[in-house]
Amino acid sequence: MDRFDTLNVFVAVAEQRGFAAAARTLGMSAPAVTRAVARLERRLGVTLLHRSTRAVSLTDEGAGFLDRARRILADLREAEQLAMGGRSVPGGQLYVTAPVVFGRLHVLPEIEALLSLHERLTARLMLVDRNVRIVEEGIDVAVRIGALADSALRAVAIGVVQPMVVASPTYLAENGAPTEPAELREHRCIVGSGVRVGSAWPFGADGRRIVEVAPRLTVNSIDAQIRAAEAGLGLTNLLSYQIADALAAGRLVPVLAAHAPPPLPVSLLYDAARAAMPSVRLFLDAMRARARRQAWG
């Protein structure tokens, strides 16, 4: 096993937080994974991982080394892609991250289509409702929803999505629909524990009118929010793409539309050094085309 393979094993163990899970991901035996990490630690002369019977965690030295290992592997993947296909044939691995529901609905279908067309291309899709560090984690393209922080990364805007307060027809028939945002304090509300709004719901043309709702139910997934709202448990605050099917089917109904905050941009974020990679160019083009078909915004 060469040094690059060893780095790949270490990164897998760190990300999976376990030797057995990493072994399954890599298609290796657990003892082989354990030996590879032990050899790496001996060569470096440091302990990279804390072992316990329940989980594996990074030491301070391991956390610092993980960032460097990811960058090295990302640079290697980029070099391999360019070497295998020049600047015209997609090959190697495309690594994309996106919000969970958006990724499932709109990113995964495009990756599936690319894989069916290009036999030498493989893909890795990380669906998480948080902003990951693109360069440090070796991400090729990140799909971001919301305002972007200033950075040296390139950004391509492909559309917008609308924050919406919704409820089921049953809930509204029993409790009435609020006509002013402040009335939300008198209603049952369902909130998510993710990174977007929580219990602080924005309203108004500038989005600066904040109403703090009292949650009747808090859940940690978008699908659970939607399910609870459809069941009539209360009002909830979601994005238009997340509830498009429920709105079309009449299972959810928008309220307070006249007080809605501004739409949020949908962007593709990537490092300029990856712009020449055929797989990245194909993915960017595919997402632009999907945005036009879906008419986001």
Give the gist of this structure:
The chain is an alpha/beta fold. Helix content is 40%, strand content 24%.
Residue runs with pLDDT of under 50 for 5 or more positions: none
- What is the strand tally? 14
Order of helices and strands: HHHEEHEHEEEEHEEEEHEHEEH
The averaged pLDDT comes out at 88
Please give the order of strands in the largest beta sheet.
4-3-5-14-6
CATH fold assignment of the largest domain: D-Maltodextrin-Binding Protein, domain 2
CATH architectural designation of the largest domain: 3-Layer(aba) Sandwich
How far is the first residue's CA from the last residue's CA? Answer: 50 Å
What is the CATH class name of the largest domain? Alpha Beta
Oligomerization category of the chains in this entry: single chain
CATH superfamily of the largest domain: Periplasmic binding protein-like II
Strand content: 15-25%
What overall form do the CA principal axes indicate? globular
Helix run count: 9
The major β-sheet equals: 5 strands, mixed
Taking all Cα atoms into account, the compactness measure Rg is: 22 Å
